[in-house]
Amino acid sequence: MLSLCITVVGTKSVADQSVEEIIKSRKAIFSKNYSTAKRVQALSSNGDFDKAKELMIEMSGNYKTLLGLFPENTQEGFKTESLPIIWLEKDSFNSLMQKSSDNMIKLTSLIEDSDDIRATLREFMWSSCKACHSKYRMPH
Question: What domains are defined for the chain?
C-alpha cells in the first residue's frame, strides 16, 4: 500500500492529482505510520534497535510527505477524517508534521541509551500521534 502511495505521490505532483488521490494518499500514509509505530515499539522493546531505527527514519520521511498532502481543495470528501482546523491553522499543522518528523530522527539517537524505552517512545513518537489526533482528526 505504501509503495502505491509513493508511486502516486512520486509520479504526479500534488497539483496533478485528483482530490480523491490526495486524500487516499494521506490516509494511507497516516495508517502506515500507525502500523509502523507499533512495530517500532515492539522492535525497540525487544532490543532490535537497528530495524526500529530504519522504521523511525521511514516515519520521519512520511511526515515530510504529509506536508504537501493538505491543499485547500481536499477539505471534504472521500471519507476524510481531517478537521477543517487544519486549513485554518495551516502553519501550526505543518509545524506539528515537521516536529513529528524531527522527533523521529531524534528518537534514532536516543532509543538505545534510554533507561525507559516506553517513556522515550511516548515522548518522541506517540505524543506526536496524540497531538495530531486530538486536534486535527475527527473523533472515533
Answer: 2-136 (1.20.120.10)
Residue 48 and residue 5 in contact, taking contact as beta carbons nearer than 8 Å: no
Q: Are 132 and 96 in contact (CB under 8 A)?
A: yes
Of 92, 106, 114, nearest in space to 47 by CA: 114
pLDDT in tens, 77-109: 898 989 999 999 999 999 999 999 999 999 999
Q: Dump pLDDT digits (tens) for 52-71.
A: 999 999 999 999 999 999 99
pLDDT at 107: 97
Distance CA(108)–CA(139), nearest Å, equals 30
Task: State the pTM of this model.
Answer: 0.85
Residue 45's contacts (CB-CB under 8 Å, 6 or more residues apart) are 117, 118
Helix or strand run (H / E) with residue 112: none
77 and 19 in contact (C-beta within 8 Å)? yes
Q: Tell me the angle at which helices 19-45 and 2-11 cross, rounded to the nearest 10 degrees.
A: 140
Residue in the block written with cell 509545524: 95
